[in-house]
Structures are given as structure tokens and as C-alpha cells.
């Protein structure tokens, strides 16, 4: 596929120079990337240099003919489509060629409309395939491959809603991936247009109106020229308003009018400017409560929520965690030029057990930290952030003044000793009780200098019956 605008690469093969030139001019005018060849041999050389998407070849040529080129093309370049040019007297041969894999045949002397229409079909098919690949590549993450049934239902709704221009409201906690999800909807609906994201929380009340709707020169102090706002900038594309719950009341009124009339008025102007955009908005604010409190207009809310999507927090879809962890390990490993290994059971259990208050955003930060601090691609339990151990740390006076690491090690050692005693020093049962492997248990015994033989001796001493004294 030609990189420029995703246009098709076409190779025209004809032993008549005039015919080659006519086709090249016609196809170039339609925006295709066109090369020519005067024989089958030359065509194969051109194809070896750069594989075309389509070969348009004359059926009858001196030397090898179009059928020979068709057969060799289908053998060497199976994805390449072959269109045959034929005279009225050779239609039967062309039909036979269709059975051998030709895509289409065009009778010389007809107007070019039929040929161009067929090329447009191929163009659209290629673009659809290209967009599908881009979607897979850009969203090759948790969004497109979930095991959570609730999120699967959301995807089914979105895939239908994306075909329309309905306003979509995305709700969910901070960090669940609302902007990523908005971008995904955009890719499904308007992939060749702009995606413009605006964080409303980051804009002051005084600047928000100008930023969204634009302003005229001299509209206020500092307005030294005309400025097109985000609604105009997103023409034909998607405008994503994140944290829409933070928009002040005066801007809410203007936004409502824009959604109802599909026009905007720049600050300092009374002229209505038509706009065409897809609106997706998002917030982690409880808008229903905001309406009750008078902070958010109910009429605007019902305009925004034609389709409402509530993204679940990460703690409610932990079945996706293993795949998410692998994805971010690979992603950040590539960025740091490290070949990352699968986390061992101890690190993996810690990552899976933790409740990520910051959702996907926090998980990404944790995995990036582990990758940066890793040695030889191995992630270490010691490199996890402190909050992973806060709930497990016993609070004892004897730990006063100790570092966090010392507290955790002491607590871990005491727990291992307690379970060993309870399991009568049986390492297999102790490891199972602790949720680790027997090998990991032996490593911990060595790390904490726990002498298993001495513990067993003490167990035996305690288990001996008392000696009766004869008086």
C-alpha cells in the first residue's frame, strides 16, 4: 500500500506505449501511485523492486502474454490483484483467465468509469483492512482483549454506537482508560479524521470559553488575533471533552446550544459558524449528584448521554490483570531495550493481589518502575512500591525506628517460623500454606538464616513425654 494517503500501488503492463501513457495519466489523476512496464519480463523486475497492490495488464502482448503474467503474479505475490485488459474478440480468453485467479477484466474501447469503479472498490477494501490493522496495532492492549463480561458488553454497545454520530458519555474512576476508550470509538467511526482531546479540568474558567469556542481579535485583553476554538479545529473529526463535570455553568449553557444547533459563536462575535464533529465526553464526577446540587445542567446532561458507558475499575476485572501485566512488561521492556522475563510466583502474586486505586494508570506506573529497576530482565519483589506491603505490615513497638524493608523482612520471618511450627517443620505443607513454592521457601530460610535442623530438634524435644521421677 502506498504510504501517501493509503493509496494503491498499480503496475500497468502493455506493449503499446500510447496505451500505457493514457492509463498512467488517468490513474495518476485519481491519486494512485502508478508505474509501467512494456513486457512481462520488465513487469516482474518492477514487482521485485516494489510489490504492487494491483497489476493491470494487456491480455495479448508480444512474447509472454497477460495469462503468463497472471500465473506468475499469483504464484509469487498471492495478495496482488490482477486486472486484464482485453479486446472484444478475446472476452472468452478473459473469462478463462478469471477462473485462474484474475480479479476483473476490462474491455478496451469502453469508457474508463467501469475500471475506475472497480479500482475504488479495491481501494475501499484495502483501506478497511488497513484501518483494521491500525486498530489492532494502536489498541493492542487491555481494551481489545478482555475476559471481563461487563467490559465485553460495553464493547458490543460501542461497536454499534460508533456507526452513528450519537453523543457518548464515558463514566468511570480516574485512571480506568476513558481517553483510550474514546480514541478507540473514534477509530471505529472516523479513523481518517482528527481526534482532539481537551482536559476541561486543566482549563481555568476564564480561558475555557475561548479555548472551546474561539475568539475574535480584540474580544478581551490579550486577544491579539482571531483564534479558532476546539470545536472548529475538530471539524469532521472527534472532540473528546475529558472531565466535563468541571465545566462552569456559563460554559455549560453555550455548550448546550452548540449541541442543539451544531453552530458556535466565537467570543466577541455574534456570527454563527456551522460545525460538524463527533462528541465524546467523560468524567469521574457523579453528574446526577451534581445536577441535584445545581452544579450541572440537567438538559446538558441528557444531551451528552445519548449513549452512556460506565467503565469498571481494575479491581472489579482482575481476570484481565495477567494479560495487562504481560502487555506493559513488553511495552516498557521495548522502550528500555530490555528482554523482560515472566515475573516469578512471588512477584506475580503481589501484583495480582494488590487493589489498584489508580486503576490502569497506576498499574502502568508500577510495571514501568519494575522494568526500569530490573536487572537482566528480572523483576524483583524488592522493587515494588511501598504501598504493596502497607496492609501486611504488623505495627509493633519493637519495630520502632526500623526501615520499611526491615519491618517487612521481620514480619515475613516471623510468619514463616510460625507456620513451620504449626506444620511440624514439613516444608511442603508450609510452602502450600504460605502460597509459595517449596524452592521459594528454602530460599527464604537461607535469606533469614533459619536453621531447619535446629527447629526440627526443638520440635522433637517438645514432643518427648516428660520423664517420671521415682522418689
UniProtKB/TrEMBL annotation:
One of its GO terms (biological process) is phosphorelay signal transduction system. The modification 4-aspartylphosphate is found at residue 58. SUPFAM superfamilies: CheY-like, Homeodomain-like, P-loop containing nucleoside triphosphate hydrolases. Residues 9-123 form the Response regulatory domain. GO terms for molecular function: ATP binding; sequence-specific DNA binding. Residues 144-372 form the Sigma-54 factor interaction domain. The keyword Nucleotide-binding applies. The keyword DNA-binding applies. Keywords: ATP-binding, DNA-binding, Nucleotide-binding, Phosphoprotein, Transcription, Transcription regulation. May play the central regulatory role in sporulation. It may be an element of the effector pathway responsible for the activation of sporulation genes in response to nutritional stress. Spo0A may act in concert with spo0H (a sigma factor) to control the expression of some genes that are critical to the sporulation process. This is Stage 0 sporulation protein A homolog.
Amino acid at each position: 500500500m502506498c504510504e501517501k494517503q493509503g493509496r494503491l500501488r498499480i503496475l500497468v503492463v502493455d506493449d503499446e506505449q500510447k496505451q500505457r501513457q493514457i492509463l498512467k495519466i488517468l490513474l495518476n489523476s485519481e491519486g494512485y501511485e502508478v508505474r509501467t512496464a512494456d513486457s512481462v519480463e520488465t513487469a516482474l523486475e518492477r514487482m521485485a523492486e516494489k510489490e504492487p497492490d494491483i497489476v493491470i495488464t494487456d491480455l495479448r502482448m508480444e512474447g509472454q502474454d497477460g495469462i503468463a503474467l497472471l500465473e506468475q503474479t499469483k504464484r509469487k505475490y498471492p495478495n496482488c490483484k490482477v486486472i486484464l485488459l482485453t479486446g472484444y474478440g478475446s472476452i472468452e480468453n478473459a473469462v478463462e483467465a478469471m477462473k485462474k485467479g484474475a480479479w476483473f477484466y476490462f474491455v478496451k474501447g469502453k469508457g474508463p468509469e467501469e475500471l475506475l469503479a472497480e479500482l475504488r472498490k479495491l481501494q475501499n477494501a484495502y483501506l478497511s483492512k488497513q484501518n483494521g490493522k491500525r486498530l489492532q496495532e494502536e489498541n493492542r492492549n487491555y481494551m481489545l482483549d478482555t475476559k471481563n463480561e461487563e467490559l465485553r458488553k460495553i464493547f458490543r454497545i460501542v461497536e454499534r454506537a460508533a456507526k452513528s454520530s450519537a453523543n457518548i458519555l464515558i463514566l468511570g474512576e480516574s485512571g480506568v482508560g476513558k481517553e483510550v476508550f474514546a480514541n478507540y470509538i473514534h477509530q471505529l467511526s472516523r479513523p481518517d479524521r482528527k481526534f482532539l482531546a481537551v482536559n476541561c479540568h486543566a482549563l481555568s474558567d476564564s480561558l475555557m470559553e475561548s479555548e472551546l469556542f474561539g475568539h475574535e481579535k480584540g474580544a478581551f485583553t490579550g486577544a491579539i488575533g482571531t483564534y479558532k476554538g476546539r470545536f472548529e479545529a475538530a471539524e469532521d473529526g472527534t472532540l473528546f471533552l475529558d472531565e466535563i463535570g468541571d465545566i462552569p455553568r456559563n460554559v455549560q449553557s453555550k455548550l448546550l446550544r452548540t449541541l442543539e444547533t451544531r453552530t458556535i459563536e466565537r467570543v466577541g462575535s455574534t456570527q454563527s459558524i456551522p460545525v460538524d464533529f463527533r462528541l465524546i465526553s467523560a468524567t469521574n464526577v457523579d453528574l446526577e449528584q451534581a445536577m441535584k446540587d445545581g452544579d450541572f445542567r440537567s438538559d446538558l446532561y441528557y444531551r451528552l448521554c445519548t449513549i452512556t458507558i460506565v467503565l469498571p475499575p481494575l479491581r472489579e476485572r482482575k481476570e484481565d490483570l495477567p494479560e495487562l501485566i504481560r502487555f506493559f512488561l513488553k511495552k516498557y521492556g521495548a522502550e528500555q531495550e530490555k528482554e523482560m522475563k515472566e515475573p516469578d510466583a512471588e512477584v506475580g502474586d503481589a501484583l495480582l493481589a494488590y487493589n489498584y486505586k489508580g486503576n490502569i494508570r497506576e498499574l502502568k506506573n508500577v510495571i514501568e518502575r519494575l522494568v526500569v529497576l530490573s536487572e537482566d530482565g528480572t523483576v524483583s519483589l524488592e522493587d515494588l512500591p511501598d504501598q504493596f506491603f502497607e496492609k501486611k505490615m504488623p505495627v509493633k513497638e519493637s519495630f520502632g525506628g526500623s526501615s520499611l524493608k526491615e519491618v517487612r523482612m521481620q514480619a515475613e520471618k516471623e510468619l514463616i517460623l510460625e507456620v513451620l511450627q504449626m506444620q511440624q517443620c514439613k516444608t511442603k505443607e508450609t510452602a502450600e500454606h504460605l502460597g509459595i513454592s517449596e524452592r521459594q521457601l528454602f530460599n527464604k530460610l537461607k535469606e533469614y538464616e533459619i536453621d531447619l535442623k535446629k527447629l526440627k530438634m526443638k520440635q522433637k524435644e517438645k514432643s518427648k513425654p516428660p520423664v517420671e521421677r521415682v522418689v
